[in-house]
Every structure is written in C-alpha cells, then in structure tokens.
Amino acid sequence: MSGPKKRMRDSFLQAMKERMAAERDVFFLTADFGSPVLDGVRKDFPDRFVNVGISEQNLVNVATGLALEGFRVVAYAIAPFITMRCLEQIRINLAILSQIRPLNVTLVGVGAGYSYEVSGPTHQALEDIAVMRALPNVGVWSPADAATAAAMAHRALDVAGVRYLRLDSHPLPDLGPAPSRDELKRGFRLGGSAGAAAAIVSTGYMSQLAGGVRDELEAGGIPVRTVDLMDLAAPDLAALAAELAACRAVLTMEEGFVGRGGMDSLLAQHLAPRLPKAKWTHAGLEPHYHFEIGPRDDLLAAQGLSRPALAARLIERINA
Amino acid sequence: MNVNVGELKKQAARVRAETLRIHAAAPETRVASSLSAVEIYVCLFYGGLLRHNPADPRDPARDRLIVSKGHGSISLYPILADRGFFPKEELQRVCRPGSFLGGIPDPVIPGYETVNGSLGHGPGVGAGMALALKRQGSDRRVVVVTGDGELHEGAVWEAFLFAAQHKLDNLVLIVDDNSRCMMDDTARVVGLAPLADKFRAFGWSAAEVDGHDVEDLCAALGAAQGGDFPGPRAVIAHTIKGKGAPSLEGDPLCHVRTLTPQEVEELTGGAP
Fold it and tell me: Which of A243, B137, B167, B211 is found 20 to 30 A from B266 (Cα to Cα)?
C-alpha cells in the first residue's frame, strides 16, 4: 500500500458530479448526510439534488418514485441507516418491484465496518452485507479504495439495476489502478502470486490489510494469491474458482460478523464446493457488539484481526 | 364537474356485486376493505378523474394511481377488466393457480403501478413520482389511495412532510377512511382524529366527503385536482368498511371476515 490517501465518498461523489453535468436524468438524494464534494453537487444541480431530511424510509420511497419515472437515482446516507432502518422499503419497492419494472437506484452507505470507530455500534455497519445479500435483485458492492469507488460510480450509472454500495469513511490509499470494467463485472480483482497454493479473499477495509498479511507469508517463502472481492451478491464464482484452482488453503477476511450470512457465507456455500481440495478459515468479527473506542486497527486486533494473527490463521490452514 | 351520477351509481352497484362474487370464489380476498373503496375507484375511472390508457398501461400521458391499500382493492379488478386492462374472464380465476390476480395485487396486473399491500409505501413512492413529473415538466397527476389504519405507519408522515416541503400540488391522496383497522375501530387502537386538521397542519389541503356519495366524491376529487392550492391535496373519504354487506358493516373484526357463498348470493341476487 502506498500513495496518497483518499476518501471513497469524495471519489464517488466527484465522479457522480461530473456525470450529472452532462446527464440530465441523474437525481441525487441524501438523508441529511453531506460532505464538501456533495455541497458542490447541491450547488450545481439544485433541480436534481434533494435532501429528504433524516428519513431513510422516505429516502428509499422517493428514490423509487423518481426511478419509476425514468431518473437514475443515487440515495446517500450512513451505511447502517440506509440498509437497516428502511429494509422493508428496500425489499418492497426496490427488490420486489425491480423484478417487474426496470429501476436504476444506487443506495450509497458511508461507514462500512468499523469506519466510525468512535461512534459505537449504532453507526457501525457490521450486518449490512448479510442483510442486503438476503435480498434478490439487489447488488452489494464493496470497494476497498477510492479508485474503485469512483469506478463503481460510473458502473452504477451505466448498468441498470438496484444495488447497495458500501463506502469506508476513512481516507485510504489506492491498492492499485482502478479496476477495469471486466474486473467490476466479474466482481473481483486479483493480486499477489498467480498459481499460489494459499489465498486470501477479502473485501472493503480488510483488503487494505490483506497485502500486509500476504507480505508476512511471502517473507517466509509462502506465495499468496489475494482476491479483493468487490461484488458480494453475484460475483463470477466460476471465474474465481478457476483463478484459485491451485489453492489448498484460503483465508477469508471481512470487517463484519462471521457466521451470519456475510461474505463468509457466500464463499463457504458457493465457492468452497468448487475448490474441494482447499481448507478454509473465515476471519471476521464474532457476533457481539463492542462499545470500546477505536483506533480501528486496535479494535480489530482485539478480535484477532491483526496482521500476525491473520497470517497465523492462514499458515495453520496450510499446515493442516 | 359534469358527471353522470346515475351511471356512476350503476357502475358502483355492478362493481360491488362483482367484488362480492370474486370474494365468494376466492375467500382469501379482503372483501370488507375492498367494499369501502368501491366508489373511490368508480369515480376515478368512470368520473373522468384519472387519465388512463388500457391499451398502454404505462402510457406516459396517464395519471399515476398508486393503490397503497393494495389488499383493499379487489374491487378495482372488475373496473380494470371492464376498462380493458385485461380480459373479463380473468375475474373468474382470482387467487387460482396460474392467475395474475392475487389476493394482494402486484404490478404484474396491468393498471397497477407499484407493489403494495404492505402498508405505508404509497405516499412516499407517489411523492417521488410527483416530484419527478414536476421536474420533467409533465402536468400529469399522482393519485394515492390509502386506508385510515395504514396511517399508523410512520413512513407515511415522512412522506406527508416531504410532499408539503416540495409543494407537490400534483399529488392527491385519497384516504379511504372506513374507521377500522384489522382488530378494531381505528379510534380504539390509535386514534387519528382530527385527521383533516393534521393534514392542514402538515401543509396539505384537506377535504372531507361521504365516500359512498358518488356526486359529492367526484366533486371533492375534482376540486382536489384543480385549484391553485400550492401543495399536496388530501381527500378524506368517510366510508363504511364492508359497505353493502350488513353483516360486515356492523362487525369491528370485519377485516378478516369471510362471507359464505350463500351470503353473497343473497346480497347479489344470484348469478350476474
């Protein structure tokens, strides 16, 4: 990891602002949640920017109405609120309705995982992946850096459908160049050593940590394939299985509850059967709320998600 | 407003009888809630108050109708069939395997816009549509029909605030105020009175009308759609849950009551 740190939301909003200048059918809604870049959107496009107030249920309903009339809609709020406060609105008006009538709605939640490390569990998004993954017809997009978030802004406008995009709130370095259109379509991007017998599959902020874990193993002479999983609803798992065909040990890493329907469930249920020789270990948060104040990496380390502990888990699987 | 009152009354009687017959064949349907709204749907579709195009149900030139009390719109089925949205024979197959006419309607049915029946969604979605139409320079209207018990849902009040904030004068809300939710009289569960005052305090215009008097109802709906009030408009239609079926009208639990085929036959005078 190197290079300047950037906020995902700034890159996403900047890309959206540029598209809105030329494309008159893009409408931006927020539930009273802002940012300096969003102030520019509000100023430049007063006809297509509405702050609905602190009302996520109405945010989703209004987004639906606008989308039914042909607007491509972005709805923006804090991650746990835009997923769980209004879950039934999303289910009825986006998941079910979009199966009958075409809609283009992107729900953008800021504050993935422990992003808001000093705000406690109300503001932390630890169940959002599992909750949103349960809904048919809803994509779940999880970028690991700002370059990916910007690429997803374009994809949100270019591809019809409904999806939830979870953004980290912290400035983070780009893991590399922005993912290509093909990488976004298949829902993952690869790093590390091709053909390695060990792999790490991670998403969001944990993909920021994956490089360090990989470095630790490779320093010990163990090549590792890394996979930044960007699509948590419908990634191309056949393609991913082909890439990981040589793997005998896989570590999955997510900043959310394990064993509760998150990324681990997706991979255990749908990828593991395609890799019958691999041994798996799923790292994440035990299903328990924590009220301790961050720093984030300390909160993660306290739950066994430090670099050495994660490296040890993968080594244990390799040696098992 | 120049409406043919006699014709509307005739249509209401026909729709009420057909609704009862549908219910006799499909007892899963919510008949009491559907009967209270008969005149509302009749006035919209036969009173010239809702521009619609059965040949192209999503015609951009249509007014948008959102039946937020989806379960209470079995009585809309005979109207949609009569107007030509789908063949009348389909009415024989409500709730049967393979039919698109379920107990809770979905927009797989031509003439329905949104998914409803899970209550409280219509006002917000309708507000979004109304906002979109205004931004697009369209003069089409959005009409939303809710029940009164449905107004217990908090999301509708979020929508009411929003619609007033954005002066959505192309949004008309019709409350089928039959004064009953599922388990009791609404006033005995969580009361809504004074409802019209609540709307006015929220920045809406509000009119109250006998929801079974087609002449007054058409006049109230016509007035709500016109005029220069700079915001959304509510019409509170006072109705009787189970209207036309005395055993339902007097029963606070009529929402979940089922009429027997014999009762339906007595009420409708036998076969159509």
Answer: B211
